[in-house]
Amino acid sequence: MNYYSNNPALKFQLSHPLMQKIVTLREQNFNEKDLFDFAPKDFEDAIDNYERVMEIVGEIAAEIIAPNAEGVDKEGPQVINNRVIYARGTQENHDALTQAGLYGMSLPRAYGGLNFPLTPYVMSGEIVSRADAGFANIWGLQDCAETIAEFADEETKKEFLPRVCEGATCSMDLTEPDAGSDLQAVQLKATYNEHDGVWYLNGVKRFITNGDAQIKLVLARSEEGSADARGLSYFVADNNFDHTIKVRRIENKLGIKGSPTCELVFTNTPARLVGSRRMGLIKYVMSLMNGARLGVGAQSVGVSQAAYDEALAYARDRRQFGKAIIEFPAVYEMLSMIKAKLEATRALLYETARFVDIYKAYEAIESTRKLTPEERADYKEYQKLADAFTPILKMFASEYANQNAYDSIQVHGGSGFMKDYACERIYRDARILTIYEGTSQLQTVAAIRHVTTGNYLKQIRYYQEQPISPEFNSFKKRLDSMITLYENAVNRVVDSKNPEYIDFQARRVVEMAGHIIMCYLLLIDATRDSMFSKSAEIYLKFAEVEVRKHATYIKHFEVDQIDKYRMV
Ligand SMILES: Cc1cc2nc3c(=O)[nH]c(=O)nc-3n(C[C@H](O)[C@H](O)[C@H](O)COP(=O)(O)OP(=O)(O)OC[C@H]3O[C@@H](n4cnc5c(N)ncnc54)[C@H](O)[C@@H]3O)c2cc1C
To answer: What is the reported pTM?
Structure first.
């Protein structure tokens, strides 16, 4: 079995028309072909290369990681002498991916990476998550190295990046007991010692995934007396250096049990500053979190795929009332909704990945030469799209992964409640997706300004003009009505000029925008390949009702009615 080649939707996404632009920008006209044996010489060669690597990821995921998932879930990691010991299967997964050279995928070749664009890298994340969402965290934290590559000085890059490519694990140390959604409140202290010219970290971090990783990116308060984001800087610490970072305990969790969630104590831990002081949260962590949110989007789509696979197999096999349960409308409707939500969020995932890819490629080019005015305008446009799409992707993909995991159990009936079937673990693993890397509520906070500034509407207008197969003409008309409802709802909310009322209704208008965007993406995909036609139609029917529901709610809701909802 191979989780890449048995899923034609992935190859389809790799053949998207924007890939040509992405690869050309990323490879800067293929100027590394004479420097590295494995650097592609042209676009076809690059795509071929991604596919070959993805075949390997797909095989390891299906043949090693997925079979290990149940054992890892049971065994979990342990803490011995303040160090984390992975479950046996976790170590085996990690070794297999390291041996196959699948760490540092998106890092520059000069440091031992594959220089993959984000789109195929994110795809690998989806594939690994389909096999085991908990393990996907350990592998996916190689994202941290991206921020080292982007913002650190050359000495730091040379010290850390080759190690990531050889399989050194990473962690992202932001959260503290009193600083969760509100990272401005971070207190872990960074002190510069003039005498030896080194920064030292002291304090506690909580809920840190893979907290005993070798390479740690830490958000810390470097400016004494400060209380907000401007007093925070970003550091990289080497956990192999000494024993100044102790794992106090690992959490006993509902799901993703193989992924150690650590409480850490830093005592005079030497660290290097990444980038400029005071920019820790404002610039670097925002960039890191945006990448990680894309990662959770991929993880969520992988979980939805796993939930679908399990439900479909069971529904075909299980017989009641003399026939396979898949023949009952109530069951096949559930299955088709899981699939439609899966395909809608997959379309949103790769659209977002493409936007991020383009603006990041321009960012990399800008570090080597001045961009032309046209390039700069294009860069800014894609950066805005990436900013707008990342929170709706994270929110929808994670919420749908939960709904799909729930329905997967429902399709299994009583058996789904038992440990004997994978859907039980998938359901538990899914639950964290709407929480970490910013809860769904915080994604709404990030997304609402793209509603009020009209960024979503502008992109929706762009999709409206894209060629869509005539067989979907009636759907286009229905989408036009949905857009009108969206515009009216947004006007009503914004015209209130009441910040609390806008916050109260934010989730609804953000969801309306997201539904409309996913409908268009599915119609555009279905125009390119009929394998998406069914899901396009099913999702549109569902989305239409959701959009009308929110529109009705907002239409009949007066500003002063929020008082009734206050629980004080
Ligand atoms: C398994 C696991 C792994 C994790 N891994 C990491 C990691 O690797 N690195 C790391 O740094 N952190 C990690 N975290 C921490 C995680 O990112 C935080 O738990 C998450 O951001 C929420 O913060 P909190 O738990 O403090 O909740 P709180 O911030 O206290 O939120 C509680 C509730 O209030 C809501 N809320 C808070 N503020 C607002 C607001 N402004 N508007 C609307 N609603 C709001 C939230 O949506 C939520 O419903 C992990 C957490 C878990 C559980």
So the answer is: 0.98
Does 138 sit in the ligand 1 pocket, CB within 6 Å?
no
Say how far residue 173 (Cα) sits from the centre of its chain.
17
User: Which pLDDT tens digit goes with each residue over 338-391?
Assistant: 999 999 999 999 999 999 999 999 999 998 999 999 999 999 999 999 999 999
Ligand 1 mutation target, pool 188, 432, 436, 449, most atoms within 8 A of CB: 436
Dihedral (C-alpha) 60, 255, 348, 305: value to the nearest 10 degrees?
A: 50
Probe residue for ligand 1, chosen from 183, 257, 439 as the CB with the greatest number of ligand atoms within 8 Å: 439
B/e letters for 448-464, b = 16+ CB within 10 Å, e = fewer, are: bebbeeebbbebbeebe
Which residue is closest in CA terms to ligand 1's atom 24?
Answer: 180
What the chain holds in terms of domains, given with CATH numbers, is 170-278 (2.40.110.10), 456-565 (1.20.120.470)
Contact status, residue 404 vs residue 304, Cβ threshold 8 Å: yes
Strand partners, 176: 179
Q: By the 8 A CB rule, do 42 and 49 touch?
A: no
